Amino acid sequence: MTDIWALALHGGAGPVRDKNYEREEAHMRALLDDGAARLAAGDAALDVVVGMVAALEASGLHIAGKGSSPNTDGDWELDAAVMDGPTRRAGAVAALRGFASPIACARAVMEKTPHVLLAAGGAEKFCAAAGMARIDDPGAYYTPASSRLVAPGELAHGTVGAVARDVQGRLAAATSTGGLLRKMPGRVGDAPLIGAGTWADQRVAVSCTGQGELFIRANVAADVSARMLYARQSLHAAAAGALADMETLGGDGGLIAVDADGAVALPFVSEGMKRAWATSAGAREVKTFR
Known about the structure:
Strand content: 15-25%
Shape: globular
Largest sheet: 8 strands, mixed
Helix content: 25-40%
Number of helices: 8
Strand order of the largest sheet: 4-3-2-6-5-1-11-12
Low-confidence stretches: none
Mean pLDDT: 95
Order of helices and strands: EHHEEHEHHEEEEHHHEEEE
Structural class: alpha+beta
């Protein structure tokens, strides 16, 4: 056991310059304070990242959870994943309808089933049986965080996530999203796909945000760990390199990552990324743009 801990949060890599993000930043700052205190007190990284993402979902300030937008059929289909670094246990839900906290549902998949990913109707049946909080009236519950007009074929996006290293040296990552704005019914992005949008092992924990199709094709989250293991790259070099590879495919977005030493990386190749981070070494900051 050490005194070293680190925490990073993101609220998506889709910010635009003509919008004020003071509310989002204030909420993330409060969450950061809470998460930092929990880690310093010895809480497990897994518990902290799930708690942070659940609060981001419930805020309605981001394109995830309560702030999600409907698909082209007018339905809300949400995705989420969580991964525990020491064991590489993982749980995820995709195209989930009717439940308030997709990240809580993802953790239930990890802890209560032998599976990693449950989707659509099967996920909903499991979540109901597991006692997950239901949404009775989606139209009344959801308050879309974005009113942006999306052109046909445009991959307009938003996600929330958290990564942490606790004082026991354990790493964990969690990611949740409402998916692309005006997405096709049944579309699933990178967030619930272990290795693409979410990853944690003994080296690094990663949560991605951006154009999910491109993150899937580049397998960005796991690529960070692979670069650290096989190419012996530092956290910052590996995170930047994985993101740059995705960018060569034409995508944009970003990621947050923390390594076993408590270092934090938050690169992005988009106009901005709502992000917050704190470490036991005294770093603490909340930013949207560069």
